């Protein structure tokens, strides 16, 4: 047992420090921005320190565990702990939130509330990734819904209220299934509620009941991931949200669904996962093709990137469905990789909108001439999105492919078919990525326009772009950094359940 409450401090610090923002003077935007940024940087440094000095890589068990009785009335515990599966998403959350705070600098209306909501979301996300109690996981899962709803409905485009309402209906509706699943598993077979992940991991259920639980959790995580056909809230939300909110949505929020699939559906309900995994593979393959084809038809720049996000999430679903060490490691690497790439593309799309006030691709053109730095960064990160060798996306997708091929669960023909169809999806990705760059940056439309003079990327924007680009290239060259964290845990999940 760890004596210093590292994880409690890491989870509680952003929202509690953020509460002081509400006492700042109304006009002090600069003070609010710097204060929030300092909290984010301090939190990221604290997390990195705790993980570097107090986390043993070669141990697949839960570390930095904390267990405090919270509500005596019905045995509710504040249980936190991390393992190789949660450490990557927590560090990703810290990194992307810090950059999103820096990206939110142009927000001046109700700046105090905006920054407080970002910090509240930060706490909820880290809490979800480090919870070791099912009910606590649910509470943290819900905690970040309200900040996202307010960030969408108050700082967004013309249809922001429509997209915010759609978001809350989908996500709150799916949370009902999550709550029913949590209570069902917790109350099954005993008078005392059992909500501890470790205890539940060793519990077995009748097949029909396990399948029922599995479907409930799957619906909740499918909305968040998003898995087709429950994805329609995502393009609308991304199309209307401010780009710093888009960074948090694409970089972290979608990853919570994938994390839940591995943490709960795979780890706690292995037999049902074994039954459903072929369907996950089929849905993941369809998602890659469907979202890539739909992306090509989008006129709205942010919606095109949103559909590309949905397409890339298909690889995570296939990796989870493959039930192999390689496939699951590939899915975890894709979670981290897509977190960086998705956030960076939305950031660059947002900064280009700040300059030209256009969102439709067929109205753009010729941006490469007045803004060469923006053009360079956008081109490099579009290449990362289309899985160029040397970038993180390529390695992650390649490992998922190896996972499909080496899976012992499936016959040869289905494996060949899934690999072939997924490869078609990878061919569609360059088509929509490159046509997006062509429509935005080439030609002469904007350079001939009367108000064509606008500034190129400034130091702040270049810093954010390069800060995201470095880990994308770093993971592309040395993916072992993530795989060494998750490898032992993945082996433990699969050997405990699927091979016994």
Automatic annotation (TrEMBL):
One of its GO terms (cellular component) is chloroplast thylakoid membrane. Keywords: Chloroplast, Membrane, NAD, NADP, Plastid, Plastoquinone, Quinone, Thylakoid, Translocase, Transmembrane, Transmembrane helix. It is a multi-pass membrane protein. It comes from the Eukaryota. GO terms for molecular function: NADH dehydrogenase (ubiquinone) activity; NADH dehydrogenase activity; oxidoreductase activity, acting on NAD(P)H, quinone or similar compound as acceptor; ubiquinone binding. It is an enzyme of class 7 (translocase). It is found in: Plastid, Chloroplast thylakoid membrane. The keyword Membrane applies. This is NAD(P)H-quinone oxidoreductase chain 4, chloroplastic. It comes from Dipentodon sinicus. The gene is ndhD.
